[in-house]
Design brief:
Blueprint: E1 11-13, H1 14-21, H2 25-33, E2 40-42, E3 45-49, H3 50-58, H4 68-77, H5 81-93, H6 98-118, H7 124-141, E4 154-160, H8 167-177, E5 182-190, H9 192-201, E6 205-211, H10 218-231, E7 237-240, E8 257-259, H11 262-279
Parallel strand pairs: 4-5, 4-6, 6-7, 7-8
Antiparallel strand pairs: 1-3, 2-3
Bound molecules: cobalamin.
Length: about 300
Amino acid sequence: MAGEDGATTTTLNLKQVAICLDVHYMTAYRYVRQGRLEAERDGTQWRVPLAALEAFRSGDPASGSTDWAARLERCLLTGDEVAAWGVVDGALAAARTPQYCYVEILAAALAHIGARGEAGELDVADQYVATAVATRIVARLGARFRRPGRRRGTLVFGSPLGELHSLPVALAADLVRLEGFDVLELGANVPPTAFAAAALRTPRLVAVGIGITRGASVPAAQEAVDAVRSAAPDVPVVLGGQGAWDPAATAMTGVSSFALDGSAVASVVTAIAERRGRARPGGTAQRRSAPSRSGPSRPTSSTQSW
Ligand code: B12
Protein backbone atom coordinates (compact mmCIF):
# COMPACT_ATOMS: atom_id res chain seq x y z
CA MET A 1 0.00 0.00 0.00
CA ALA A 2 1.29 3.49 -0.86
CA GLY A 3 1.54 6.15 1.84
CA GLU A 4 0.80 9.87 1.40
CA ASP A 5 4.30 10.44 0.03
CA GLY A 6 3.86 7.60 -2.46
CA ALA A 7 6.29 5.32 -0.61
CA THR A 8 5.28 1.78 0.30
CA THR A 9 4.09 1.51 3.90
CA THR A 10 3.80 -1.59 6.06
CA THR A 11 1.58 -0.01 8.72
CA LEU A 12 -1.65 1.98 8.66
CA ASN A 13 -3.05 4.61 10.97
CA LEU A 14 -6.49 4.11 12.53
CA LYS A 15 -8.29 6.28 9.98
CA GLN A 16 -6.94 4.10 7.17
CA VAL A 17 -7.80 0.95 9.13
CA ALA A 18 -11.36 2.19 9.64
CA ILE A 19 -11.72 2.73 5.88
CA CYS A 20 -10.28 -0.70 5.08
CA LEU A 21 -12.62 -2.41 7.54
CA ASP A 22 -15.55 -0.19 6.61
CA VAL A 23 -16.15 0.67 10.26
CA HIS A 24 -16.24 3.90 12.25
CA TYR A 25 -12.89 5.25 13.43
CA MET A 26 -13.95 4.64 17.05
CA THR A 27 -14.73 1.01 16.26
CA ALA A 28 -11.24 0.52 14.86
CA TYR A 29 -9.85 2.21 17.97
CA ARG A 30 -11.92 -0.13 20.18
CA TYR A 31 -10.55 -3.20 18.34
CA VAL A 32 -7.05 -1.99 19.21
CA ARG A 33 -7.88 -1.12 22.83
CA GLN A 34 -9.47 -4.53 23.33
CA GLY A 35 -6.32 -6.14 21.98
CA ARG A 36 -8.27 -7.73 19.14
CA LEU A 37 -6.30 -5.89 16.49
CA GLU A 38 -2.54 -5.78 16.86
CA ALA A 39 -1.13 -2.26 16.83
CA GLU A 40 1.98 -0.37 17.85
CA ARG A 41 2.03 3.03 19.45
CA ASP A 42 3.91 5.69 17.47
CA GLY A 43 3.95 8.80 19.65
CA THR A 44 0.27 9.67 20.07
CA GLN A 45 -0.82 7.51 17.12
CA TRP A 46 -1.59 3.84 16.71
CA ARG A 47 -0.05 2.06 13.72
CA VAL A 48 -1.49 -1.26 12.58
CA PRO A 49 0.80 -3.61 10.64
CA LEU A 50 -0.75 -4.69 7.32
CA ALA A 51 -0.21 -8.34 8.27
CA ALA A 52 -2.22 -7.79 11.47
CA LEU A 53 -5.03 -6.15 9.52
CA GLU A 54 -5.11 -9.09 7.10
CA ALA A 55 -5.16 -11.57 10.01
CA PHE A 56 -7.98 -9.62 11.64
CA ARG A 57 -9.95 -9.54 8.39
CA SER A 58 -9.50 -13.26 7.77
CA GLY A 59 -10.53 -14.01 11.36
CA ASP A 60 -7.31 -15.95 11.95
CA PRO A 61 -7.77 -17.20 15.53
CA ALA A 62 -4.04 -17.24 16.21
CA SER A 63 -3.88 -13.48 15.92
CA GLY A 64 -7.53 -12.77 16.52
CA SER A 65 -9.92 -13.17 19.38
CA THR A 66 -8.76 -16.35 21.11
CA ASP A 67 -5.06 -15.79 21.67
CA TRP A 68 -5.70 -14.15 25.01
CA ALA A 69 -2.13 -14.31 26.34
CA ALA A 70 -0.63 -12.66 23.25
CA ARG A 71 -3.29 -9.96 23.29
CA LEU A 72 -2.79 -9.32 26.98
CA GLU A 73 0.97 -9.21 26.51
CA ARG A 74 0.61 -6.38 24.00
CA CYS A 75 -1.60 -4.42 26.40
CA LEU A 76 0.77 -5.00 29.34
CA LEU A 77 3.70 -3.72 27.33
CA THR A 78 1.93 -0.56 26.24
CA GLY A 79 0.88 0.08 29.83
CA ASP A 80 -2.75 0.14 28.77
CA GLU A 81 -4.78 -1.00 31.76
CA VAL A 82 -8.15 -0.41 30.10
CA ALA A 83 -7.25 -2.56 27.12
CA ALA A 84 -5.67 -5.19 29.38
CA TRP A 85 -8.84 -5.47 31.43
CA GLY A 86 -10.79 -5.64 28.16
CA VAL A 87 -8.84 -8.79 27.23
CA VAL A 88 -9.44 -10.41 30.63
CA ASP A 89 -13.08 -9.39 30.61
CA GLY A 90 -13.43 -10.85 27.12
CA ALA A 91 -11.95 -14.14 28.31
CA LEU A 92 -14.34 -14.24 31.28
CA ALA A 93 -17.24 -13.47 28.95
CA ALA A 94 -16.07 -16.38 26.79
CA ALA A 95 -16.48 -18.64 29.85
CA ARG A 96 -12.81 -18.80 30.82
CA THR A 97 -12.46 -19.27 34.60
CA PRO A 98 -10.58 -16.81 36.80
CA GLN A 99 -7.93 -19.53 37.33
CA TYR A 100 -7.55 -19.84 33.57
CA CYS A 101 -7.16 -16.06 33.33
CA TYR A 102 -4.38 -16.16 35.92
CA VAL A 103 -2.46 -19.25 34.87
CA GLU A 104 -3.04 -19.52 31.12
CA ILE A 105 -3.37 -15.85 30.25
CA LEU A 106 -1.68 -13.50 32.75
CA ALA A 107 1.16 -15.79 33.90
CA ALA A 108 1.72 -16.92 30.29
CA ALA A 109 1.91 -13.33 29.08
CA LEU A 110 4.38 -12.45 31.86
CA ALA A 111 6.50 -15.52 31.16
CA HIS A 112 6.72 -14.51 27.50
CA ILE A 113 7.68 -10.97 28.47
CA GLY A 114 10.43 -12.45 30.68
CA ALA A 115 11.68 -14.64 27.84
CA ARG A 116 11.72 -11.70 25.43
CA GLY A 117 13.61 -9.67 28.04
CA GLU A 118 16.17 -12.44 28.39
CA ALA A 119 16.56 -12.55 24.59
CA GLY A 120 17.31 -8.81 24.57
CA GLU A 121 14.13 -8.01 22.69
CA LEU A 122 12.68 -5.95 25.54
CA ASP A 123 14.44 -3.83 28.13
CA VAL A 124 13.98 -3.90 31.88
CA ALA A 125 11.59 -0.92 31.79
CA ASP A 126 9.16 -3.09 29.83
CA GLN A 127 8.99 -5.51 32.77
CA TYR A 128 8.17 -2.67 35.14
CA VAL A 129 5.46 -1.25 32.87
CA ALA A 130 3.94 -4.72 32.43
CA THR A 131 4.09 -5.33 36.19
CA ALA A 132 2.24 -2.12 37.00
CA VAL A 133 -0.66 -3.07 34.71
CA ALA A 134 -0.59 -6.73 35.81
CA THR A 135 -0.85 -5.63 39.46
CA ARG A 136 -4.00 -3.68 38.70
CA ILE A 137 -5.47 -6.61 36.79
CA VAL A 138 -4.82 -8.87 39.78
CA ALA A 139 -6.50 -6.31 42.06
CA ARG A 140 -9.61 -6.35 39.85
CA LEU A 141 -9.73 -10.05 39.08
CA GLY A 142 -8.87 -10.96 42.67
CA ALA A 143 -12.42 -10.26 43.81
CA ARG A 144 -13.56 -13.26 41.76
CA PHE A 145 -11.47 -15.58 43.89
CA ARG A 146 -13.24 -14.75 47.15
CA ARG A 147 -15.67 -17.49 48.14
CA PRO A 148 -18.41 -17.11 50.76
CA GLY A 149 -19.18 -19.93 53.16
CA ARG A 150 -17.28 -22.12 55.61
CA ARG A 151 -13.60 -21.24 55.88
CA ARG A 152 -11.02 -24.02 55.73
CA GLY A 153 -8.26 -22.22 57.67
CA THR A 154 -5.65 -19.57 56.97
CA LEU A 155 -2.32 -19.53 55.17
CA VAL A 156 0.46 -17.02 55.56
CA PHE A 157 2.12 -16.25 52.21
CA GLY A 158 5.12 -14.08 51.42
CA SER A 159 8.49 -13.86 49.69
CA PRO A 160 11.74 -13.71 51.67
CA LEU A 161 14.23 -10.86 51.96
CA GLY A 162 15.72 -9.84 48.61
CA GLU A 163 12.96 -11.49 46.58
CA LEU A 164 11.00 -8.70 44.91
CA HIS A 165 8.70 -10.82 42.76
CA SER A 166 5.48 -10.19 44.66
CA LEU A 167 3.05 -10.86 41.79
CA PRO A 168 3.55 -14.66 41.76
CA VAL A 169 2.71 -14.87 45.47
CA ALA A 170 -0.38 -12.68 44.99
CA LEU A 171 -1.62 -14.96 42.22
CA ALA A 172 -0.89 -18.10 44.23
CA ALA A 173 -2.79 -16.63 47.21
CA ASP A 174 -5.89 -16.04 45.09
CA LEU A 175 -5.77 -19.56 43.67
CA VAL A 176 -5.83 -20.85 47.25
CA ARG A 177 -8.64 -18.49 48.27
CA LEU A 178 -10.80 -20.02 45.58
CA GLU A 179 -10.63 -23.29 47.53
CA GLY A 180 -12.17 -21.64 50.61
CA PHE A 181 -8.96 -20.79 52.47
CA ASP A 182 -8.07 -17.38 53.83
CA VAL A 183 -4.63 -16.02 53.06
CA LEU A 184 -2.70 -13.47 55.06
CA GLU A 185 -0.38 -11.92 52.47
CA LEU A 186 2.88 -10.40 53.66
CA GLY A 187 4.09 -9.34 50.21
CA ALA A 188 7.70 -9.46 49.05
CA ASN A 189 11.05 -8.80 50.74
CA VAL A 190 9.77 -10.14 54.06
CA PRO A 191 12.28 -10.66 56.91
CA PRO A 192 12.36 -14.08 58.62
CA THR A 193 11.10 -12.61 61.89
CA ALA A 194 7.95 -11.36 60.16
CA PHE A 195 7.17 -14.83 58.81
CA ALA A 196 7.60 -16.25 62.32
CA ALA A 197 5.52 -13.55 64.02
CA ALA A 198 2.70 -13.92 61.48
CA ALA A 199 2.70 -17.69 61.93
CA LEU A 200 2.43 -17.33 65.71
CA ARG A 201 -0.46 -14.91 65.71
CA THR A 202 -2.64 -16.45 62.96
CA PRO A 203 -5.56 -18.52 64.20
CA ARG A 204 -6.45 -21.75 62.36
CA LEU A 205 -3.12 -21.63 60.54
CA VAL A 206 -2.86 -24.34 57.88
CA ALA A 207 0.66 -23.59 56.60
CA VAL A 208 3.18 -20.90 55.82
CA GLY A 209 3.89 -20.46 52.10
CA ILE A 210 7.21 -19.02 51.01
CA GLY A 211 7.44 -17.94 47.39
CA ILE A 212 10.69 -17.56 45.46
CA THR A 213 10.98 -16.73 41.78
CA ARG A 214 14.78 -16.86 41.55
CA GLY A 215 17.21 -19.56 42.61
CA ALA A 216 19.28 -16.78 44.18
CA SER A 217 16.57 -16.49 46.84
CA VAL A 218 17.07 -20.01 48.19
CA PRO A 219 19.35 -18.92 51.10
CA ALA A 220 16.87 -16.23 52.16
CA ALA A 221 14.04 -18.74 51.88
CA GLN A 222 15.98 -21.14 54.11
CA GLU A 223 16.31 -18.42 56.74
CA ALA A 224 12.57 -17.82 56.59
CA VAL A 225 11.85 -21.55 56.90
CA ASP A 226 14.22 -21.81 59.89
CA ALA A 227 12.54 -18.85 61.61
CA VAL A 228 9.07 -20.38 61.20
CA ARG A 229 10.30 -23.80 62.30
CA SER A 230 11.87 -22.51 65.47
CA ALA A 231 8.85 -20.33 66.38
CA ALA A 232 6.14 -22.81 65.38
CA PRO A 233 7.64 -26.29 64.88
CA ASP A 234 4.34 -27.99 63.99
CA VAL A 235 3.43 -25.61 61.19
CA PRO A 236 4.01 -27.01 57.68
CA VAL A 237 6.02 -24.82 55.32
CA VAL A 238 5.31 -24.82 51.57
CA LEU A 239 7.95 -23.61 49.14
CA GLY A 240 6.42 -22.30 45.93
CA GLY A 241 7.34 -20.44 42.77
CA GLN A 242 9.77 -20.80 39.91
CA GLY A 243 12.76 -20.58 42.26
CA ALA A 244 11.68 -23.83 43.87
CA TRP A 245 12.80 -25.53 40.65
CA ASP A 246 16.38 -24.51 41.33
CA PRO A 247 18.64 -27.44 42.25
CA ALA A 248 19.69 -25.54 45.40
CA ALA A 249 16.09 -25.73 46.63
CA THR A 250 16.28 -29.53 46.74
CA ALA A 251 18.86 -29.23 49.52
CA MET A 252 16.63 -27.06 51.71
CA THR A 253 15.62 -28.37 55.10
CA GLY A 254 12.33 -27.93 56.92
CA VAL A 255 10.20 -27.67 53.76
CA SER A 256 7.16 -29.93 53.93
CA SER A 257 5.79 -29.40 50.40
CA PHE A 258 6.69 -27.87 47.08
CA ALA A 259 4.18 -26.10 44.82
CA LEU A 260 5.96 -25.46 41.58
CA ASP A 261 3.23 -24.10 39.38
CA GLY A 262 -0.19 -22.55 39.51
CA SER A 263 -2.04 -25.81 38.95
CA ALA A 264 -0.31 -27.42 41.95
CA VAL A 265 -0.90 -24.69 44.53
CA ALA A 266 -4.49 -25.49 45.46
CA SER A 267 -4.03 -29.26 45.60
CA VAL A 268 -0.88 -29.03 47.71
CA VAL A 269 -2.56 -26.73 50.25
CA THR A 270 -5.75 -28.82 50.31
CA ALA A 271 -3.73 -31.98 50.98
CA ILE A 272 -1.97 -30.31 53.93
CA ALA A 273 -5.25 -29.04 55.39
CA GLU A 274 -6.82 -32.48 55.13
CA ARG A 275 -3.88 -34.16 56.81
CA ARG A 276 -3.83 -31.61 59.59
CA GLY A 277 -7.59 -32.00 60.01
CA ARG A 278 -7.10 -35.74 60.44
CA ALA A 279 -4.11 -35.29 62.75
CA ARG A 280 -5.84 -32.85 65.13
CA PRO A 281 -8.17 -35.18 67.09
CA GLY A 282 -5.25 -37.47 67.89
CA GLY A 283 -2.97 -34.64 69.03
CA THR A 284 -0.31 -32.46 67.45
CA ALA A 285 0.81 -33.40 63.97
CA GLN A 286 4.41 -34.61 63.91
CA ARG A 287 7.14 -34.10 61.39
CA ARG A 288 8.19 -37.38 59.80
CA SER A 289 10.79 -37.11 57.06
CA ALA A 290 12.12 -34.99 54.24
CA PRO A 291 9.67 -34.24 51.40
CA SER A 292 9.65 -36.71 48.55
CA ARG A 293 11.18 -35.57 45.28
CA SER A 294 11.36 -37.04 41.83
CA GLY A 295 13.60 -36.42 38.83
CA PRO A 296 17.33 -35.87 38.91
CA SER A 297 17.44 -32.32 40.12
CA ARG A 298 13.96 -30.88 40.31
CA PRO A 299 11.53 -31.32 43.17
CA THR A 300 8.04 -32.34 42.19
CA SER A 301 4.97 -30.51 43.41
CA SER A 302 4.67 -32.74 46.40
CA THR A 303 3.47 -32.88 49.94
CA GLN A 304 4.80 -34.62 52.98
CA SER A 305 2.90 -35.70 56.07
CA TRP A 306 3.41 -33.74 59.28
C1 B12 B 1 7.40 -9.26 36.47
C2 B12 B 1 8.83 -9.67 36.64
C3 B12 B 1 9.66 -8.86 37.42
C4 B12 B 1 9.15 -7.66 38.18
C5 B12 B 1 8.56 -8.17 39.52
C6 B12 B 1 7.40 -7.33 39.97
C7 B12 B 1 6.56 -7.94 41.03
N1 B12 B 1 6.07 -7.04 41.86
O1 B12 B 1 6.35 -9.14 41.11
C8 B12 B 1 10.46 -6.85 38.38
C9 B12 B 1 10.63 -5.92 37.19
C10 B12 B 1 10.57 -6.03 39.67
C11 B12 B 1 11.50 -7.95 38.27
C12 B12 B 1 12.76 -7.83 38.78
C13 B12 B 1 13.78 -8.77 38.56
N2 B12 B 1 13.71 -9.87 37.80
CO1 B12 B 1 12.01 -10.53 37.14
N3 B12 B 1 10.55 -11.24 36.14
C14 B12 B 1 9.32 -10.85 36.03
C15 B12 B 1 8.56 -11.78 35.08
C16 B12 B 1 8.47 -11.10 33.72
C17 B12 B 1 7.16 -12.21 35.52
C18 B12 B 1 7.08 -12.83 36.91
C19 B12 B 1 5.66 -13.21 37.21
O2 B12 B 1 4.94 -12.52 37.89
N4 B12 B 1 5.22 -14.37 36.66
C20 B12 B 1 3.84 -14.83 36.77
C21 B12 B 1 3.64 -15.79 37.92
C22 B12 B 1 2.19 -15.88 38.26
O3 B12 B 1 4.03 -17.09 37.52
P1 B12 B 1 4.88 -18.02 38.49
O4 B12 B 1 6.05 -17.25 38.93
O5 B12 B 1 5.14 -19.29 37.79
O6 B12 B 1 3.91 -18.28 39.75
C23 B12 B 1 3.04 -19.40 39.85
C24 B12 B 1 3.70 -20.60 40.55
O7 B12 B 1 5.09 -20.59 40.45
C25 B12 B 1 3.17 -20.61 41.92
N5 B12 B 1 3.81 -19.80 42.96
C26 B12 B 1 4.51 -18.67 42.82
N6 B12 B 1 4.86 -18.19 44.02
C27 B12 B 1 4.34 -19.01 44.96
C28 B12 B 1 4.38 -18.94 46.35
C29 B12 B 1 3.76 -19.92 47.10
C30 B12 B 1 3.79 -19.86 48.58
C31 B12 B 1 3.09 -20.98 46.43
C32 B12 B 1 2.44 -22.03 47.23
C33 B12 B 1 3.06 -21.04 45.03
C34 B12 B 1 3.67 -20.05 44.30
O8 B12 B 1 1.87 -20.09 41.74
C35 B12 B 1 1.92 -19.01 40.79
C36 B12 B 1 0.55 -18.83 40.19
O9 B12 B 1 0.35 -19.65 39.08
C37 B12 B 1 9.50 -13.02 35.08
C38 B12 B 1 9.39 -13.90 33.84
C39 B12 B 1 8.78 -15.25 34.17
N7 B12 B 1 9.20 -16.27 33.49
O10 B12 B 1 7.97 -15.41 35.05
C40 B12 B 1 10.87 -12.36 35.31
C41 B12 B 1 11.97 -13.18 35.99
C42 B12 B 1 11.38 -14.01 37.10
N8 B12 B 1 12.89 -12.11 36.54
C43 B12 B 1 14.10 -12.41 36.44
C44 B12 B 1 15.17 -11.57 36.86
C45 B12 B 1 16.57 -12.04 36.51
C46 B12 B 1 14.93 -10.39 37.54
C47 B12 B 1 15.97 -9.43 38.09
C48 B12 B 1 17.21 -10.07 38.74
C49 B12 B 1 16.55 -8.53 37.02
C50 B12 B 1 15.57 -7.91 36.15
N9 B12 B 1 15.25 -8.58 35.03
O11 B12 B 1 15.12 -6.84 36.45
C51 B12 B 1 15.16 -8.62 39.11
C52 B12 B 1 15.26 -9.30 40.51
C53 B12 B 1 14.48 -8.63 41.55
C54 B12 B 1 14.60 -9.37 42.86
N10 B12 B 1 15.59 -9.04 43.67
O12 B12 B 1 13.79 -10.21 43.14
C55 B12 B 1 14.31 -13.78 35.81
C56 B12 B 1 14.68 -14.82 36.88
C57 B12 B 1 15.73 -15.76 36.40
C58 B12 B 1 16.15 -16.68 37.51
N11 B12 B 1 15.73 -17.94 37.40
O13 B12 B 1 16.81 -16.28 38.42
C59 B12 B 1 12.95 -13.99 35.07
C60 B12 B 1 12.54 -15.48 34.90
C61 B12 B 1 13.08 -13.30 33.70
C62 B12 B 1 14.06 -14.00 32.80
N12 B12 B 1 13.63 -14.90 31.92
O14 B12 B 1 15.23 -13.72 32.85
N13 B12 B 1 11.02 -8.99 37.63
